[in-house]
Amino acid sequence: ASGTRELQVYLQASDGGDASPAVPVSAPAGTWTQVTIPLADFGGINQIARLTIQDRTGAAQPTYYLDNLELTTPAPVSSEGEITIKLDTQPDANTNFVFKGDLGT
Fold first, then answer.
1. Does the predicted TM-score (pTM) go above 0.70?
2. What Å distances lie between residue 62 and 34, 96, 100, CA to CA?
3. Is the distance from CB of 49 to CB of 13 less than 8 angstroms?
């Protein structure tokens, strides 16, 4: 097969619910293409009952194959690490601090 498959992906929070914004996907024929779509591209939907992949040209599409379809959560941002705090040690300095959590004392 030749050409590019012009597809779109959208989500629904329920089987009969409103669809999220459709995200366009172009998949070249004859090669595996990795596609990553951030959940935010679907308009902030936070529950998924249906994932739809369909043609976006209005024409019949040749056969295409999907493999390893995954829904993943991004790696959490680490809250551990070093923090550098610079203090103004001048006699007239006015410094305010707010600390939350364990400071390792």
1. no
2. 19, 66, 58
3. yes
Question: Would residue 24 count as lying in a domain?
Answer: yes
Does 17 fall in a domain? yes
pLDDT in tens, 47-76: 889 999 999 998 887 788 888 888 877 777
93 vs 46: which has the higher pLDDT: 46
Number of domains in the chain: 1
User: Per the domain annotation, does 82 fall within a domain?
Assistant: no
- CA angle at residue 15 from 14 to 19, to 5 degrees? 70
Question: Domain span at residue 9?
Answer: 4-55
Does the residue 20 lie in any domain? yes
